Amino acid sequence: MASRLFIDGQRFLMLEDYDRAYFYFQKAREKSPDEAAINFKIAEILLRANRVDQALEFGMKAVEIDPDNKYYNLVMAEVYSKQNQPMKAAEILENLMSNTDENQNYILDLAQLYLAAGEFDKALSALDRAEEYYGTVAPLTLQKQRIYLRKNNLAAAIAEGQKLVDAYPGNSEYVLNLVEILFNNGRTDEAIALVENSLASYPNQPELQMAAYALYKEKGNVDRAESLIKEAFSSPDLDPKVKAQAFADILQETKSARRDALLETLETSMLEHHPNDAGVLTAVGDKRLFEGKKEQALELYQKSVRLDPPNPQVMQGVITTMFELGKDFSEIETFTSTAVDEFPDRAEFWFFDGTAKLAQKKGPESVASLEKALEVNANKNQQITLLVNGQIGDAYHLVGRKEDAFKSYDAVLQVNPTDEHVLNNYAYYLSLAKENLEKAKTMSEGLVKRFPKNSTYLDTHAWVLFQLKDYSNAKVYMERALENEEKPSGVMWEHYGDILYHLGQRNEAVTYWKKAEGGDDVSEQLSQKIKDRKYYD
After folding, report:
1. Rounded mean pLDDT, 86-98
2. 119 vs 206, which has greater pLDDT?
C-alpha cells in the first residue's frame, strides 16, 4: 500500500501538482514511516514551498535511514544553505566528494558555500581543486581573482588575470579585466604594456584601442591617445554606445581647435558606420547644439527618438529645442503627448504638455496636464513647482477660474517676487478684472523699470493705468510699447485706440481700431466700436 501511495505521489509530483503529491507521500509515510525515499520526497516538496524547518526534519530522517545516498545529502545541504548555515552545507558536500570522484562536480557549490561563510581561504582551496578538475575556466579564475582582491593580495589577483590572458590569447575581455585592476592600483605603465603587447599580436581590437586611449590620455600622451581613438572609431565592430559615450565625454572638455578637429574626425567615422544608431545621432545632435546649430540638432534628436524607444533625456532635448526655436505648438504637442505616455512619472513632461496645450488655447486639457505635473512633482523640485504654478495660473484664467489663477500667481511670488511672467500676467488679468489695481500698478511699474523696452510689459502697464483712468500716462507707455514692437499685435493697436478715445481724440481712436481689425486677441466689441465710433468696455 505504501508503494502504491508513493507511486501516486510521484505521478502528481511530475505533473507539478504539489499539494496532491504531498498528500499521497504523507499517506505513504503513515504506512511506512521509516522509508527513506518517502521522507526525502516530503522534504523536497517542503523545501520547494520554502517550509525549510519542516523540510529539515524529514531530510534528516532520510539521511539517518540511508546516510550514503547522494540525493538525500544534497537536499540536506540545500536546507542548511537556506537556513544560512553554509558551513553545515559545506560539510555535507565535502563528505560527498571524499567518498567518490564522481561527486567532484559539486566543487563549485562548495566554493560558493565557503564564500557565503566568509571562509576565503577554504573557498580558494575549493576553487583550486575545481581548476584541477575542470582546467583553466574563466568563471573559476575570475572568482579566485575577486577573492584575492578582497584579501588585498594584489600580486595573486594579477597572476590570475595573467593566467586568463595567456590561456585565451586574443580575447580582449580578459585583457581589459586585468588592465582595469592594474590601472585602479596605480600601475598604469604595466597596463599600457599589457595592452600594447596584445595589440601587437592582435591589432584589430577596438575595445583595447579604447582602453589604451584612456591610459595614454591619463599619462598625458595626447598624440598617441588621439591616434588610438581614431583607429577604434574607424572599426564598425566597436559598439556604437561606446563611441557615443566617448564622443560625449570629449565634447564636455574645454573647447580648443585640437578638440574640435578630433570631434570632426570622430563624427565622420561614427556617422559612416552607424548612421541610424540613436545614441550616435544624439551625441552628434549635442555637438550641433554646442555649436549653436539648433535646427540641425533638433533634426538629429527627432531622428534618434523615432529610431529607438524614447530616451527621457533625448525627448527633453527635442521638446526644449522646439520651444526655443518657436516651432508650431501642435507639432510640439505630438512629442509632449508621447513623453507623458512613455514617462508618466516625469513632472517636467506634464509641464511641457500643459504649456503646449495652453499655447493652443486648449484650456481644460492644459489645466489637466499642469495639475498632473504638480501631483507628480509633489514639491520635490521647487523650480518645477514655480514653473507650473506660473503656467497653470494662465490656464486657470483661460477656463474662467480667476481666483485659482490669482492663488497660483501668489504662490509663485511668495517664493520668487521678481518672476517676470507672473508679474506681467497677474497685473494684466487684475486690470481686466478691475481688481486690486494699485497692486497691479506696482507689479507692472516694477517690470517696465527693469525692462524699459519690453513692449509686452509696456502694454500691460499702459492698460493698468488706463483702468486707473490715468489716460495721459497710459498714452505715454502705450506709445513706447508700439515704438519697441516691430509688428504690434491687434490688441496693442486696440488699446492705443481706447486710450486716444478717452483723451478725446475720437477720429484717431477709430483709425487705430481699424488697424487692429483681424489682429490677435482683439476684443469682441472691436467691430461695434468702429461702427459706432464709440468705446465699449
Report:
1. 84
2. 206
The Cα–Cα gap between 196 and 405 comes to 67
* C-alpha span between 338 and 365 (Å, rounded): 15
Q: How far apart are CA 154 and CA 328, in angstroms?
A: 61
Give the C-alpha separation, 18 to 49, whole Å.
9
Question: With b meaning 16 or more CB within 10 Å and e meaning fewer, what string describes 226-255?
Answer: bebbebbbbbeebebeebbebbeebbeeee
Distance, in Å, from the CA atom of 455 to the CA atom of 168, rounded to the nearest integer, reads 73
Q: Please name which of 448, 462, 534, 535 lies closest in space to residue 492, comparing C-alpha atoms.
A: 462
Closest by CA to 175, choosing from 130, 148, 211, is: 211
Q: Note the pTM of the prediction, 2 decimals.
A: 0.69
Asked whether the predicted pLDDT for residue 459 surpasses 90, the reply is yes
Query: Cα separation of 509 and 283, whole Å?
Result: 56
Distance of alpha carbon 342 from alpha carbon 415, whole angstroms: 32
pLDDT in tens, 409-431: 999 999 999 999 999 999 999 99
Taking the CA atoms of residue 217, residue 222, residue 225 and residue 226 in that order, the dihedral angle to the nearest 10 degrees is 130
Q: Give residue 102's pLDDT.
A: 66
